[in-house]
Amino acid sequence: MRRRTFDALATAAGLCLVVVLVVAGVLLTWGASFANSSVHNQLAKQEIFFPPKAAFAHPKAGTEITPSMIPSVSQYAGQQLLTGAQAKVWANDFIAVHLSEMPYHGVYATISTMARAAKPGSAKAASLAALEQVSFQGTTLRGLLLEAYGFSTFAEIAMIAAICSYIAAGVMLLLTIFGFLHLRRTAPETEVLPKIATHGHAATA
User: From the CB of residue 162, how many other CB atoms can be counted at a distance below 10 Å?
Assistant: First the structure.
């Protein structure tokens, strides 16, 4: 095969790969932007705000602010919950803590089972019904927040993949340019493997 033919094919393949990588990067960037915007907009509608900074001054077990919340929850003091990272903290380090301090550790399935087993109309049944409602609300909100965190994580992964695609496209574009320059400098009669080509002609002769 002529070297110029080989270089032309390699250059064309390189250009195609550049286009594919750029398109992939654009789609990944769009996906990341869409996911982040959706998470932000949905969380904004909930109007959840972290407790003010003053609330973290005297943490105490069994109250709204416990000592375990200081390392994580306090960093967002006073802020509105708008990001996946904040959603994760609120779900795992705020709601989950308060659920765990409830009777039966706030586990909805356990409380619901106890409520159904209680004598209808009794004080225990009323208490368990109220507890069941609180557990259901807390567990549901925690699940929704963790779902938002999951989507935000996908967005981060997509953005990293987009950056990698852009970098790979840039590298491939440089290699393609070098290939094109080499193509222009190569003589038309040059073979890809000249020695093999020469031996082949000699054997035929």
Answer: 20
- Secondary element (H or E) of residue 89: helix 84-89
Q: What long-range pairs does 106-113 form, CB within 8 A, spacing at least 24?
A: 106/134, 106/135, 106/138, 106/139, 107/135, 108/132, 108/135, 108/136, 108/139, 111/135
For residue range 41-95, what is the model confidence (pLDDT) as tens digits? 999 999 999 999 999 999 999 899 999 999 999 999 999 999 999 999 999 999 9
Two tokens at 110? 């356990």
13-44 pLDDT per residue, tens: 888 999 999 999 999 999 999 999 999 999 99
How far apart CA 156 and CA 33 sit, in angstroms, is 9
* Contact status, residue 143 vs residue 79, Cβ threshold 8 Å: no
Angle between helix 123-185 and 3-46 (nearest 10): 160
Q: Mean pLDDT, the chain, as a whole number?
A: 87
Are residues 115 and 134 in contact, defined by beta-carbon separation less than 8 angstroms?
no
Residue 165 structure tokens:
């695609």
pLDDT value at residue 169: 94
